[in-house]
Amino acid sequence: MSVNVNASQLNTTQLLISVTTIEEAQIALENGADIIDLKEPSLGALGALPIETIQAIVTYVKNTKNADAKLTSATIGDLPMQPELLLAHVTQLATTGVDIIKIGFFQTDDYQLSLDALKSVAHAGTKLIAVLFAETMYPQGLIAAIKYAGFMGVMLDTAKKNGLTLLDYYSQEQRAIFAKTVLGHNLQLGLAGSLKPQHVALIKEISPSYIGFRGGVCNDNQRNLALDAAKIKAVRKIV
């Protein structure tokens, strides 16, 4: 399934807010989110919402005023790198009309098998984002392979939600090198990982396409609690 994503929508740093319900999507939209990301925090780093919930939120966002200026993204869940399994979940998720599908690149001996399986749907127009994790060591050349497979971008996140942030794993120099590699392959660059408002200025130095938040804009900075509208608005002003 092909979805329409205007390249100009991601040509400056945008704000991604992860939501679990239509009510949270409304809060995120009203307080400045550019990308409404759909996931279930209680099910892991990239926990997936039920397909019916994703469909309902995507429909809501698309029917919202100025919806053409907003994007939706969703994750297929914390799945092992099994080619047929990933392809099946991506194919199902694409039927919801979500703009972007996020796939976690969890530890495996061979990422190429999964990339080969997903190449056909990516080249057919389904917009895929590879989510890499700061705790994982990836093989040299993986980002180039992701580009060749037809993905639209790479996101760097944290797999373990233990209070540590992306900045605890990647130094300023390492973040800059990572960004140069991703952007050098003409891929969109997303950054997340337990980020808080005070991290935005540092993150923006490497010109990411978007910065993702969940826990940092929730009550008590707990990703399983409700979104805090004031925190989203504060981050929006900084971004």
From TrEMBL:
Assigned EC number: 4.2.3.153
Record's keyword annotation contains NAD: no
Active-site residues from the entry: K39, K102
Enzyme class: lyase
Function per UniProt: Catalyzes the formation of 4-(hydroxymethyl)-2-furancarboxaldehyde phosphate (4-HFC-P) from two molecules of glyceraldehyde-3-P (GA-3-P).
Transmembrane regions: none
UniProt-recorded Gene Ontology molecular function terms: lyase activity
Origin: domain of life: Bacteria
SUPFAM superfamilies: Ribulose-phoshate binding barrel
Keyword set, alphabetical order: Lyase, Schiff base
One Pfam family here: 4HFCP_synth
Protein name (record): (5-formylfuran-3-yl)methyl phosphate synthase
Classification via InterPro entries: 4HFCP_synth, RibuloseP-bd_barrel
Keyword Ribosomal protein: no
Organism: Methylotenera versatilis (strain 301)
Reactions catalysed according to its record: 2 D-glyceraldehyde 3-phosphate = 4-(hydroxymethyl)-2-furancarboxaldehyde phosphate + phosphate + 2 H2O
